[in-house]
User: What shape does this take?
Amino acid sequence: MHTNRLIVTLLFSSTFLAAGCSNDAGGGRGVAASVDKTVDAMLEEESRASFDFFWLEANTDAASDGYGLIADRAPGNPGVSSVASTGFGLTALAIGAERGWVEKEAARERALGTIDTLLWNAEKEHGFLYHFLNMQDGTRASGSEVSVIDTAIAVNGALTAGVYFGGETMEKAKAFADQVEWPWFRDPAVNQFYMGYSPENGFSGYWDYYAEQLMMYILAAGSKTHPLSGDMFYAFERSSRAYGEGEPFIHSWYGSLFTHQFSHAWFDFRGYQDREGVDWWANSVIASEASRQHAIDLSGTFKTFGPHAWGLTASDGPNGYNGRYGSPPSDRDDREHFTDGTVAPAAALGSIVFTPEASIAALKHYRSKPELWSEYGLADAYNEAITPKWVGTDVIGIDKGITLLMIENYRSGFVWDLYMKNDYVQAGAKAIGLVPQTEDVTAN
Assistant: This one.
């Protein structure tokens, strides 16, 4: 992909709710102005069930080298941990403790042990973790690549837990962040991160198009030991197009909704714009609205879709996991996204901070279908457009993670409040030029 960048200044979204309520989980600045008891109960139910995945699907053997590592999915693929799932899980521990779902000391002990595992035992290269690890000992899962984005998610989780639990947990989280050698994963010829690395094949691919990677530049620019220039934030292609009659927005290669959510689960982009005038919060609002409208437009083709069943994102499907589930605009000519009538509840729920009313309506719709519910909450995905109807049998850690974190941010702003307090994050945002919209965005 070439490096020409299309620059778009997005107006502050009319759906941006600056003032949230203070509530029982942290008193931060959430999105919800008010929540009725029925909706609150549903949000609590899905959040608690999602948390249970991270609490129960973890290595709880404190004597093992893989203590605290969390399964990639369940019940399938036993024994394999996803580094991203573990990162979401570290943040989940803070949420669970604050909500009173587990004792705070038990959560602190689990967080400290997990960070120790990531710091000392998990197999890595130059501080970067392998995407998948064997849960029992932290060694590289067969054929797995070293992943910069999954490492960033793990660092996000560690720093968030560190702020919440403090003390030794914070010190270990800093040590974990400090050992990531960000320059090693950068190709100086194009000023972009490589996509992956393996000892057998070396580096491969580039993060040369907008996706979920904004967090990587914030962490790299804020690193105290191996920093990179904030200019990397502006070195990937920013392709802007509209869906139908909607507003234009910077879209990702496959049009998958998670790409507009993951970095926002931790960094509170509300009220910020970058040096090119992009409001990334508004961008995700428009992307979420476009994804919903696409589902509405296809409701006559795929029975699953409709105004309350929307959001195409990477998930399981009838034929296995598919990272191409998405909606237009995608790539450069709308050929890369794919749909077969499969909907992942995490897509709409992961956008609850961007599209509160539509996402809550989707939650009500999903909860009206008993076949979608299990011990860990809503199923990863389902498809009513085929015969027989299909419902995924696994739940996936990253989908439970984005659901849990975004619901918590909607309710309380708790994750945002913790993450934004971290000095690594503050330094990274400043180096990149992410400033409140009342300030001069051209200032260095």
